[in-house]
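Example record

The entry below shows one chain as it appears in the dataset: sequence first, then C-alpha cells.
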Amino acid sequence: MTLEADKAVEIVLENIKPLGLERISIFESLNRVAGEKIISRRNLPPFDTSAMDGYAIKSADTKDEGAVLKVKGVIAAGDNVAGLSIESGECYRIMTGAFLPNGADSVIQHELTDNGKEQVNIPQKVKNGFCVRYKGEDLKAGDVIDRIGEKISPYHIGRYVSAGIFYTSVYRKPRIALISTGSEIADPANQDNPDMIFDSNGQMAYQFFTQLGAEVSYIGVIKDDKDELLNTFKSLNNFDMVVTSACISAGDFDYMNLIADELGIKWLFNKINQKPGQHMAFGFMGNTPVFACPGNPVSAMFCNFYYVKPAIQKMMGLKEYRNKPISVFLGADVIKKKGRVQFDRVKIVIEQGRLYAYPFTTQDSHIIESLVSANAYAKFTNEMVGTVAKGTELSAYIFNADQVFG
C-alpha cells in the first residue's frame, strides 16, 4: 500500500508508545527524559539574602536628604546571622549572597555611599526591599517541579539539585537492533576489499540513534541470503525496535517481504509516495516495531530522520517528539518532475535576517556528500511540478542545527 508521507508519519506515531521508567541519580540523568514530578525539599534562597555588596539597612532610616548610620560589623556570604540584628540608625556591611540580619529590609550598594567602615553616609532615600532576594523567591519548599517529557539538560539538573532532589525517575532508553543487508556491503571491522562497499548506512544510523539517546546494537551486515536474514531476526531478543537498511524493494534479492510472513511481521505500510525513500516499510513483529528502510544512503538516512527519529523520541517519553518544520525561502530555481512529495537536501543560510535554502547540486540518493554539505531537507509538495522559482517559501526540516545557527 502506497501512502503519502504525512499519513505514514501519523501511522508510525499512532502505533508507538512510551517505554517504562527507571530510577537513577540526578548526576547521571543528562539527556534522559524526565518521567515524574519533583517536590522541592528546600527554599531558595533559604533566607532573605543580599543581591549586592553594600549595607544592610532599615529603609525607614533613610530620607530624601539621606542618612548617616553606624556600621555594626561585616556579614559575608555563608555567615550565620542568628543573633545579629539592627535597630534604627544601625547597619551592617554585607556581601552578595549573605543573609540579612534581623531588622534589615533593604541593601544599598557600596558605590552609592561613602563606603564608610565605622559609619556610612547614605545620600538618598532607599526603597523598602531594594537589592534583597527574598526567602523562597526562586523556589519554595513544597513547590511542584513538573518537567515530565522534557530532556534533562544541565539547567534541569541545577534546578533539581537546588530543590534538594538527587534521584528521579526517567524513561528507559529504547533498545534498538540495527541490521544492514546486501552481499556487496562490508562491515567496516573487516579488512578492506576494493570490490565491496563499507556499511556507511549502519554506521550513520548507529551514531544517529545513539545521539538521540537510544541504546543501539549493531547486529552487522547480512548477505542477500533469505535463510541468514530469517535466522538473524529469529535470534533477536529483548529489543524495543528493529531497524534495517536495504532488502525491502522489489528486486530478486529483496527478502524482507518474503520473510515477513514467516516471522509474523504485519506491515502497516510498505511504500510511500516520496523522494527519497519510496521503498520503506513499517510494521510489527509481535509487539516490536520494525522499520525496513531503503538501501541508498540518502534514502536510508532520510527515513531514519523523518520516521524513525520521532518514533524513538516518543518511545523515550519526550513530550515534543515530532519533527518541526521551519519556513525558508528557496535560494535557487528547482526543477521538480513528478507529482509527489520531495525532500531535497539543502543548505540553509541566514542572509539579512531571513533563512534561505540552497539545494545541493545533485539530489541522487547515493551521494553521501549531500548529507555532509547540507543541513536540512526542504519539502516540495505534490502540487509543485515544473520550475519552483527562487524565492518560493517552503517548509524545511533541519538535521544539522549547529551548521545553521552555530
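Notes for this example: The domain at 49-133 is CATH 2.170.190.11 (Molybdopterin biosynthesis moeA protein; domain 3). Helices lie at 5-14, 154-162, 200-212, 226-234, 256-263, 297-315, 369-373, 401-405.
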